[in-house]
């Protein structure tokens, strides 16, 4: 293992079309996840994202069993979108929500495992739904991903302020006439679609890492919502593209690379945030009454 | 005066229209009628305290004026027009409720949401600069310039509530609707918030409807009281409404109102639930200090 990072081999692999396709897919997915991440964190939906990705996995596994490999993507999308919308229409009490999500998540995961064990095809197809199979991505998938990326980015530009308002300050937003329920469903559609596409590429387990970790890191260093979104996208891109490139020559799965890079970024950001807080101290409270 | 181009209703087409006009108004929650036959005219610059026990329909009245709830009967107008959701002619100050410490908003973002958080689409070009100027002005009006770039989640409850007032003022409203804005604030911050509201209505003629459990913190600035109990109500100056006779009639139970210096103490007896005490004790109300 003295060639953990063999540069010449990495360079060679980078020229291969399947690697370039994987990089393109990863880049679009990281953009999507980076854009949605701060809203996921702001809405306190990390656990909901986990639930959505597990149910998306169950949908994909069901599709694989019933209709074959060609329909895995459709199954993943349906599973992700339906569950995201169901979660979005649940009551606004977050405590209660987490319980419901936990219940649904466990059931979905169980179903997924059942479908997978009933499936008699190639085992690599099964495993890839959990940990992803980014080198198996074809250019058609990248095209779909790019279209979804453009649609979600455009929707975010149009909905950004009301969505931010409804996510971070829901009571005030309601008082100001923001259609919080409609926006919750719109956000669920974006989230479900991104998750459904994401699990085919990086797997159900990594979707969480992409939708939550970069945004959590970003919001630790800035309270500016636009800056947080930009940073979240940058962190997601660094983790995904960096993870893919580093995983090439050792021939190991990309998941540990992406999660580790993301985690290191998160730790550094938390450190920077804590340092800054200590330096400025608690802002002076004295009110000139 | 803000540097913003938009004027007040008084500068607009109908200068005579009161900030709020209710005619034979009634509201229902489900099938329960909370109150009816309410007539109320609130001229520009008036400060009205709305009192009453829980469930008497105080907040519901604000919801009607915010355009969130239709009347069951009668008519409601805000500045001569029907209440409209998301109107910048109406500012809203809610109860203080701590924000998540990591909420990704700075003071100016928070105030900006009050201006156009309900609008779709991006803000571009010249509108961006105008927006910034209005936000800076609102921050300045509440003396919160220093927190413009501070993360709101890290500010104290009192500081956050001051930003709430800025959030309500940034649209340059003709009417401010306040729903228990002093709750869980310490005395010093209660005073700050009341001063800010009072100054706003004196300088800009903004009418204030102020829902509260506790009249004393606003007593020096209140023009009239709307007291709601179980569908019965009384409107008048504090001296007219806050009397043993009137409150006993409203509660249909003996209630004593005592004036001590510049404070009003309301004492309910036995089982009569007088709002001020909150708990079932029949002692008295004031002690407006709530730990934040």
**Name given to the CATH architecture of chain B:** 3-Layer(aba) Sandwich
Number of domains of chain A: 1
Number of helices of chain B: 7
CATH topology of chain A: ABC transporter involved in vitamin B12 uptake, BtuC
Radius of gyration of chain B: 19 Å
First and last CA, distance of chain A:
68 Å
Strand ordering within the main sheet of chain B = 5-6-7-3-8-9
Number of strands of chain A: 0
Estimated radius of gyration of chain A: 20 Å
Give a topology summary.
The complex is a heterodimer of chains A (289) and B (292).
Chain A: H1 7-14, H2 17-42, H3 46-67, H4 72-89, H5 94-118, H6 123-131, H7 139-168, H8 170-175, H9 180-201, H10 204-221, H11 225-248, H12 255-280
Chain B: E1 20-29, E2 32-42, E3 47-51, H1 58-65, E4 73-78, E5 90-93, H2 107-116, H3 125-141, H4 157-169, E6 175-179, H5 187-204, E7 207-211, E8 224-229, E9 232-236, H6 238-241, H7 244-251, E10 255-260, E11 263-268
Parallel strand pairs in B: 3-7, 3-8, 5-6, 6-7
Antiparallel strand pairs in B: 1-2, 1-4, 8-9, 10-11
How does this structure look, described?
The complex is a heterodimer of chains A (289) and B (292). Chain A is mainly alpha-helical. Chain A has one domain (2-286): ABC transporter involved in vitamin B12 uptake, BtuC. Chain A has twelve helices and no strands. Chain A has helices at 7-14, 17-42, 46-67, 72-89, 94-118, 123-131, 139-168, 170-175, 180-201, 204-221, 225-248, 255-280. The longest helix of chain A has 30 residues, at 139-168. With 292 residues, chain B is of the alpha/beta class. Chain B has one domain: Rossmann fold, CATH 3.40.50.300. Chain B has helices spanning 58-65, 107-116, 125-141, 157-169, 187-204, 238-241, 244-251; strands at 20-29, 32-42, 47-51, 73-78, 90-93, 175-179, 207-211, 224-229, 232-236, 255-260, 263-268. The chains are: A mainly alpha (289), B alpha/beta (292). Chain A binds chain B through residues 38, 41-42, 44, 157-162, 164-165, 168-169, 171-178, 218-220, 222-225, 228, 277, 282-283, 285, 287-289, and chain B through 66-68, 84-86, 92, 94, 97, 99-100, 102-106, 109-110, 113-114, 116-123, 143, 146-147, 150-156, 158-159, 162, 167, 188-189, 191-192, 195.
């Amino acid at each position: 293992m003295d060639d953990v990072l063999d540069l010449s081999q990495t360079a060679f692999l980078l020229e291969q079309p399947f690697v370039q396709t994987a990089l393109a897919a990863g880049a679009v997915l990281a953009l999507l996840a980076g854009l949605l991440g701060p809203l996921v964190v702001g809405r306190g939906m990390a656990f909901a994202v986990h639930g959505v990705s597990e149910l998306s996995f169950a949908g994909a596994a069901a599709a694989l069993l019933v209709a074959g490999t060609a329909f895995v993507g459709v199954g993943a999308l349906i599973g992700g979108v339906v569950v995201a919308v169901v979660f979005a229409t649940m009551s606004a009490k977050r405590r209660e929500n987490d319980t419901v999500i936990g219940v649904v998540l466990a059931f979905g995961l169980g179903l997924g495992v059942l479908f997978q064990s009933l499936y008699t095809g190639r085992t690599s197809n099964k495993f890839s739904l959990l940990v992803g199979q980014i080198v198996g991505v074809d250019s058609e998938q990248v095209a779909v991903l790019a279209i979804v990326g453009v649609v979600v980015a455009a929707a975010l530009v149009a909905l950004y302020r009301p969505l931010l308002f409804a996510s971070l300050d829901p009571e005030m937003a309601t008082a100001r006439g923001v259609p919080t329920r409609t926006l919750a469903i719109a956000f669920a559609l974006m989230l479900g679609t991104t998750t459904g596409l994401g699990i085919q590429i990086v797997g159900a387990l990594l979707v969480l890492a992409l939708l939550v970790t970069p945004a959590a890191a970003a919001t630790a260093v800035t309270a500016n919502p636009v800056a947080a979104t930009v940073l979240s996208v940058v962190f997601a891109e660094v983790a995904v593209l960096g993870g893919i490139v580093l995983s090439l020559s050792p021939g190991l799965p990309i998941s540990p690379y992406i999660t580790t890079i993301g985690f290191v970024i998160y730790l550094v950001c938390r450190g920077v945030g804590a340092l800054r807080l200590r330096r400025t101290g608690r802002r002076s409270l004295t009110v000139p009454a | 005066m803000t540097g913003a181009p938009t004027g007040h209703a008084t500068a607009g087409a109908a200068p005579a229209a009161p900030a709020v006009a209710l005619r034979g108004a009634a509201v229902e929650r489900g099938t329960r009628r909370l109150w009816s036959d309410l007539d109320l005219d609130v001229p520009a610059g008036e400060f009205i305290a709305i009192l009453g026990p829980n469930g008497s329909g105080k907040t519901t009245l604000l919801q009607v004026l915010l355009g969130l709830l239709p009347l069951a009967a009668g008519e409601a107008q805000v500045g001569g027009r029907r209440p409209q959701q998301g109107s910048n002619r109406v500012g809203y100050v809610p109860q203080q409720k701590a924000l998540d410490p990591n909420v990704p908003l700075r003071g100016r973002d928070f105030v900006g949401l009050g201006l156009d958080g309900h609008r779709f689409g991006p803000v571009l070009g010249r509108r961006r600069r105008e927006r910034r100027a209005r936000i800076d002005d609102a921050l300045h009006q509440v003396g919160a310039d220093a927190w413009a770039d501070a993360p709101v989640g890290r500010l104290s409850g009192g500081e956050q509530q001051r930003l709430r007032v800025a959030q309500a003022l940034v649209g340059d409203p003709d009417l401010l609707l306040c729903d228990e804005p002093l709750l869980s604030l310490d005395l010093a911050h209660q005073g700050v918030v009341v001063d800010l509201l009072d100054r706003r209505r004196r300088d800009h003629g903004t009418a204030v409807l102020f829902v509260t459990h506790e009249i004393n913190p606003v007593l020096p600035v209140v023009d009239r009281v709307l007291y709601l109990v179980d569908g019965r109500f009384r409107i008048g100056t504090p001296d007219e409404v806050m009397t043993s006779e009137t409150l006993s009639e409203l509660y249909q139970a003996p209630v004593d109102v005592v004036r001590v210096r510049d404070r009003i103490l309301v004492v309910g007896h036995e089982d009569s639930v007088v709002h001020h005490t909150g708990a079932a004790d029949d002692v008295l109300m004031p002690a407006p200090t709530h730990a934040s």
